[in-house]
Amino acid sequence: MKVAPSILSANFLRLEEDIKSVVEAGCDMLHIDVMDGHFVPNLTIGPCVLEQIPLLTPIPLDIHFMVEGVEKFIDMYAGLKPKYMSVHIESERHLHRVIQKIRALDISPAVALNPHTSIEGLKYILGDIDMVLVMSVNPGFGGQKFIESSIEKITDLKEMIEKRNPNCLIQADGGITDSNILALKNAGLDIAVAGSFIFKQINRKEAIASLKV
Ligand code: DX5
Ligand code: ZN
What we know:
With about 210 residues, the chain is of the alpha/beta class. Helices cover about 35% and strands about 20% of the residues.
């Protein structure tokens, strides 16, 4: 299991220290939540703060857009040279075009699904993407309770992926802890995003290690 700490749960006034702590603790990438106050009822930090991260560490960045009209945000964050950019299927009328735009920037495109969204809409786009992000809470906030039906969704998605694009990875985001990580692994999860579970613990090395099942 690869582990991506969500910096949404970091202390933004001590961001450098918090980022270093999870990088030194052995995480695989940093998950960055971008919100616009429209697609989700919250805001996070913008590119002028985030562009400092690549100067701090070469760790791969994984950007999760929770915004309306993602195209202009892709341009705004492309300078960070992230490994992944995830776009919500619910926010895009022209998802295929957006995916091509991300790919053209040499960034791996991913599609995110809200908890109520069925995997069926991925059928004809799965061959064009490198990752699916299954939201296991309603997006917008850290520290929420894991939605159990996400396990069934990941099981079904794994089956679809094996048939249509076996190289596509599955990422889950929200409410992930050491108590549900094994069930997620058995369902077919590749990358666990965890915010509060990692950042609320003093020993972040132990927290990350407990998710690497
Ligand atoms: C929620 C974000 C998540 C969030 C996860 O909208 O997408 O990345 O930070 O936080 P936890 O792990 O605390 O549920
Ligand atoms: Zn996220």
